[in-house]
Amino acid sequence: MKKKKKISYLATTAFAASLLVAGCSNSTSSSASNAKGQNSSPSYGLKNVQLPLKKKETLKFLTQSSPLAPKDPNGKLIWQRFEKDTNIHIDWTNYTWDQFPDKRNLELASGDLPDAIFNAGLSDNDILRYAKQGVIVPVENLIDKDMPNLKKILDSHPQYKKLITASDGHIYSFPWIEELGTGKEAIQALDDIPWINKKWLDELGLKMPTTTDELEKVLLAFKEKAPAGNNTIPMSFMINHGGEDPAMLLGAFGMGDNDDHYMVTENQKVVYTANQPGYEKGIEWLHKLQTEGLIDKEAFTQDWNTYVAKGKNYRYGLYFTWDRANISGNNEDYVPLPPLKGPDGTVNVPRTNGYGFDRGRMVITSSNQNLDLTAKWIDKVYEPIQSVQNNWGTYGDKTQQNIFELTSAGTLKHLPLNGTAPVELRQKTNVDGPLAVLNEYYGTVTTKPDDAAWRLDILHKTYVPAMKATNNYPPIFLDKDSQDQLTQLETVVKPYVERMKAEWILKGGIESQWDDYVKTLDKDGLSKILTIKQQAYDKYNSGK
């Protein structure tokens, strides 16, 4: 299941192009590196590695974790068991999420490289830049030689091998894969579910709204008559914040919107949502709600903690997020708002480009002098029963609540959450990083999490039937020149789009400013962005 801090994802800072890569300490040998940060000759270290080792060895890893987790990752039961099963001790340097991007880059720039970076949070730009500088090493030969678990996954699911292979033919990183359904039925197909206060609807004798006009009337009734009185917030969101943004409502006006603003039409054309006519009409409608006092005044500035605090106090008539348990608790006071019919009769649920996939979860650095040992360690996290625990948490922990129980058949059964917010429990107990949880594991290795099965049922019954888009945009690995150009253009276009979106909902003006806005997008390079995306999409689909 998704974690939003949505999980989303980490920013990086640039560092010097010429790195002097010094060796990091481990239990086997020191590094010999040249001034470009590249090993003069890779050292595979121990030969014929079999786990568990007869003699304990140590590797040095850099990582990140939730502030809710132990400062030392070895305090987690998963890693204690893992060390026992491998006889490999990991010397962790660990930072919390908020500190990690800057700390990671400072450590890499210092030249004192760890053996590997676990839960690395690397963007495509990072991977390609560090590969070019020789800071990280290609791993496709290690996968073929030392990693039977991962190799089996890539052979049986070739789309993932395609997605992790750079344009130069090398693989530089190890992925995180979480399958929960496929296509429109995948759990990531809709991010920002709107949750409406069913308790207020019932107490006020209101029917569930089915159109944008009916929703407006319901929100007005919440404002004027809701039991929360002066504390009532008819509708709240976090603008431009993934699952907490109200983009789903814009589907009633046409194509709708999603968090990255790209969609693929039925004729395989890549388009931008935020310059479509229906987008203009939808934003205009949201501004109307704003002028009527139906939108939270803090919706344009609040952080996650503020958003959650108000939700836990049941102040919202309608709000948006991935899972209501993280905002208002796992109860029936809030239920999914069904897709709404717009002014011209349109009913559409905008589909995201979300995949249960992250390319940059782990990399091996050029200072690593024990590649075979490291590869064997990493491959073990791709064992089905290990991946399941790394993703969600473990069993048999006597010090805190468990995610699983281990059955007599050796499979993992999800335990009831008993009111605990799933994201908080998982952050305390799982280890994340590279892993693979495939659809075929459900029923054979593990059960589905109750909250995931419940969410999939909601999508299947409520939203997927109204989801018009057959296609979405996969996480294609661009070549470095294209990625550099795309990043440069998107750093201008996307902030402008999202700034104007917030400004128009809050202050209005979209009708008079629309033409100039569209011209500005073209001037800032949107047409070039779409050309890059289209060419990559066509190439990906052609199998080249």
TrEMBL record:
Transmembrane segments: none annotated. Keywords: Cell membrane, Lipoprotein, Membrane, Palmitate, Signal. SUPFAM superfamilies: Periplasmic binding protein-like II. The keyword Metal-binding does not apply. Residues 1-32 form the signal peptide. Coiled coil: none annotated. The keyword Kinase does not apply. PROSITE patterns: PROKAR_LIPOPROTEIN. This is Extracellular solute-binding protein. It comes from Neobacillus pocheonensis.
